[in-house]
Protein: Glutaminase
Organism: Paenibacillus vulneris
Amino acid sequence: MDSEWSRLSTELPGWVEASRKQSSQGKVASYIPELAHAPWDALGVTILDGSSGRVNAGNHELLFTLQSISKVFTLLLALMDKGEDSVFAKVGMEPTGDNFNSMLKLELVDPGIPFNPLINAGAITVSSLIDGDTPAQKTERILSFFRELAGDSSLTYNDAVFRSETATAHRNRSLAYFLKANGVLDADVEEVLQVYFKHCSIEVNCLHLARMALVLAYDGTDPQTGRQLIPRRYVQIAKSFMITCGMYNESGAFAIRVGLPAKSGVSGGVLALVPGRYGIGVVGPALNAKGNSTAGVHLLETLSAAFDWSIF
């Protein structure tokens, strides 16, 4: 492993520059207007091991919002709050094969619950299951949880992105009201959406992502402190969803080409992990047609091939 870490430290900058060229094949997300300001050709990565070792390359200090990556961790918090039975009475466990913001199967497939917690309808539902009497209390609990996992007590949300998302989220509102009509959402739709938009707007860098991934890589234990932050069973569930649904409807191709549990977001972030070894945070804002970072996925494919990281 020492030779692998040494090679990582030496070759990572070159691999980042080679993958950066893939940015020209993608486009920065603009359907949330505030996201359109991101530098299209940025690419950064941080990799952490369990002994506090760290390697960085590229634009690893670039700030970006979690977007859909947050869905993994709100799922974990909802499981810790409510347990498996309550969560999976409201949301399913299967990939959809549809776009992440599709409404199609909510109407076509009984019982009308979201197929999984990593599509928008599922994540909105999960947001409603977080403990707290008000949206502010729920948001504060989510933020505290994310701060602990990321190892940064100053972590907060980007207000401009939150406002931009709130103002333009017509599809998400449609999904939420449909869920309300189906009896999946019990709470006030706008209050649930406020919680959802805020956790999607939490701002991080690659180090934060890698730190959060490292806890998952070590089955819920923070290897740097020895504290068990998440029950192992719930991490198993989250990692299973990351493999089957984490890269939108490109998850099958990613499993074949990279073979690591991962979750992407439309700000260009990708969280990935090598079980028992590494937490990885990547950002590359230019996205492909599926909503995944073109350069970021290429970099992860390069790394997985170079070190035979695939879990399959």
